[in-house]
Amino acid sequence: MTTPRNLPLEGLKVVELGHYIAGPFATRLLADLGAEVIKVEPPEGDPIRGWGSRHNGHPVWFSIHGRNKLSVTLDLKKPEGRERLRKLCARADALVENFRPGYLERVGLGPAALHQANPRLIIARVSGYGQDGPYRDKPAFGAIGEAMGGLRHLTATPGVTEHAPPRCGVSISDDLAGMYAALAVASACWGVKGDPAAKGRVIDVDLVSSVFSLMEGMLPEYGLTGAIRQPAGSAILTAAPTNTYLCADGKWLCVAGNSDLIYHRLMTLIGREDLRDDPRMADNRGRCANARELDAAIGAWTRTLPAAEAQERLEAVDVPCSRLFDMRDCAEDPHFRARQTVMEVADPLVGETLLHPAAPFRFDGIAPREMVRWTGPAVGAHNDHVFRELLGEE
């Protein structure tokens, strides 16, 4: 149970009380940063253990989802389970929970009760709609956060009404809420640190607001003019040319030629000096007004080449671009491997060496692989260590 020297959250004690994605994603980030995270699971385990593929009877996804965490089991429906949770919170700096609002209060573990056990405890509450407001008690999962937060409206294909706007492929609203919760926990703990008179705080993070926070300037634009941004497909309405183009081998290439200098190099490469020198295209505003014409020219060029060759030629003249990577591309890419963004980690529970994604931050002197102290443990694997050694129970 060791932590690499100099991880920034070493010594921070966090209790995770929740399930599925948002709360556990927040604590995974905190654990990767060096915090001691005690994951409290029901006796049957976090339901997320039933998601995804299994190997040797164990969930592969949980190898990442539960990494660097201590797993204990508690039945919060029983007095002894609730009492043990109070003891865990009494020695903790923070609690992260993502039950529906009101659940902890109903079982006698709301903020008032937990602050009796530890007046300095930071309590982060992650939910679908937040701890108050008219929608507080409605159920929600990640897809609902995307829908109400404004993102799913924007993922539609322009002009296509017979197909539902697709999700982005991952539980983005859960992940966003988890990131915001982790940031808020670290910030609140910093506020308490060094002040013996400081009191604990309650943090309220919700899925809908987390997605809504990404809507750029759309809200003030609507407030001033009534304008509602519509789906733009793979283009960017405020910069051109930037789009995704089909290549000769059926693969797609994302090209971002938005600055004046890059645009000139791009048009020269594809043999469209006429568009390069066209006064209509002299600045980004003019190029946005004529984006369809530019996209047609670039698309005509990419369709003559395989995606890898088109990318190589664009990179040779310093035009930002990338093929659309699938997971094989990511796993085998030399840059991912060199930076240990993709790394090999032995998982004793699964019984294999697995590929893990690195934490998305780097610290001088600490290799990304060092930040994975252990993989997701079995349900209740650390009951004895936590209850006997840390809490001192007999």
From TrEMBL:
Gene3D superfamilies assigned: Crotonobetainyl-coa:carnitine coa-transferase, domain 1 (3.40.50.10540), formyl-coa transferase, domain 3 (3.30.1540.10)
Keywords for the protein's UniProt record, in alphabetical order: Transferase
GO molecular function terms noted in the UniProt entry: transferase activity
Superkingdom assignment: Bacteria
Signal peptide span: none
Keyword Transferase: yes
Pfam family, one: CoA_transf_3
Name of the protein this chain belongs to: Formyl-CoA transferase
Organism: Falsiroseomonas stagni DSM 19981
